[in-house]
User: What shape does this take?
Amino acid sequence: MRLVLLSCLIAILTLPVQAENPTPYSGTKMIETGQPFDAFIKRLTTAIRDNKMGIVGDACATCGAKGIGVTIPGNRVLMIFSPHFAVRMLKASEAAGIEAPLRLYITEQPDGKARLTYRLPSHVFGVYKVPSLDTMTKELDEIIARIVKQATG
Assistant: This one.
């Protein structure tokens, strides 16, 4: 029995290691901003507001970890949307409401610089196959592009 268990353990340990897929969904963008994490958060927040989107949520894993005495690199999710788009989205597809708000994920890299990861709205909402929703998401793609350009520029 021990020999069988040992053989199984050896077989498991010799399996090839699989790397994480950092962008498992279509339309995912990852941008190395070249900016310090905290400075980028400020620039991104300004760009969001300048482009008439609202920050409807701010999840800070770094803050939560600090609250339990653990230090981790900067890690934030800014959730953004606009009431104007919310009304249009729900008119087009109530089911699509689960996709809002849009998320911008900011992570601090080992060099202290920020990485921005997000999914294009056209991919987030595109799975619903609703023409009026597709029209709206093209507008959102453009707004997100402007936000990213302003924050990273």
